[in-house]
Design brief:
heterodimer, A: six-stranded mixed sheet, four-stranded mixed sheet, 4 helices, about 15% helix, globular, B: mainly alpha, elongated
Amino acid sequence: MANSSPVVTVLNPGDTTKPNPFTICIVANPALEAPWQSRQFVVDPITLSNAAFNGCAKYIQDVLFGNLPGQRELFLADPAIAPKIRVVTLFVSGLPALDANSLVAQDADSNLLVARRVAFQPFLVRYGLVADVAYGVSASTTHTRASAWFTSDDDARPGVGFTLDGVALAHRYYCLIPGTVGIHVTATSMTALHEFGHALSSYSNGMVVDLYVDSNPALNCKAGRPIPPQFANYNAATLASDPLRDTLGYPPGWNSYHCELLDPGFPALMDDYWLAPDSVPEHCQHDRITRQFLTDRIRAKIQR
Amino acid sequence: MEPLKPVRKRQILEASPSATPEEVAEYEKLLAERFTVDPDLPRDPATLNLRQRKTDRLRELRQKLFPDAEAETNGGETTATR
């Protein structure tokens, strides 16, 4: 297969007054590691279909900025935020199936697509790109389920401070390793925005975890019974717990509990959005602390 | 990590009658937990041992939940079932 010219498309220019605006990169994965951590690589079929990749990139852009039909989670669509976010796609075909060209792997223990997080930055730099959050889009024939790694912040550089239950943390301006997502070309509905919630969050300054499993404590999840009325104190604001996990309920045996919902009629977006009671996952929104945290974090980054 | 669709959970249990919803939940929890640890930070031996035990349990559950999926390492789900 001949190595094609890279196609870099700017879907949203972002804050052009800044040398390094907050940037989301959506990349056609050149090579799959199959299975993950095997160091065996095959060409990803996504490289054979620029049109399919472009369709997926449009879907990701649409859900990020609240443009799916009926979508209610609109935090990135805020007119003070959306124009500041740069969104760029990269499609390259014909690259050899090598370590350096592999951004997504197939998990051996599930059908998850796993982002090869440390491969993104050096790959993108080859094309003059830098990402804060990056999606690797795959057309794997066997693995179709998305996953994400949180951002590894650069804690040696500045940011906007905040407190979480009395602990001083920071929404860092820059990362050491961007938040990364492995996603299938056929992904739909809220999946890309759910994964963005993970990827924008931070290993050292607040992890946004899955709420549909009995997760360990994190920014949006705590543990203990009975569930206390207060979930957290975030930047001097007291946030309530969700005593019921409305519409879903906490399964017997769970120790974790969540923050209050913005709309108790629907699961949180980091919970099982497929279980929206009206079967419309686009009606799900983040819970209160996740919405506030992600909004503050992106505001910090777009002002750097 | 993208949640499993309800129809997929039903399919898993139908295809593996000895499996329980609690085992599906444990499998999902172990999968999700992998992403909550920075994979690029050094770990002490005790943490590595704990992680290995969890990986072993994850694989044990996978074999039970997806008995026919070993050859294709796809967790039993195909694009057509999504």
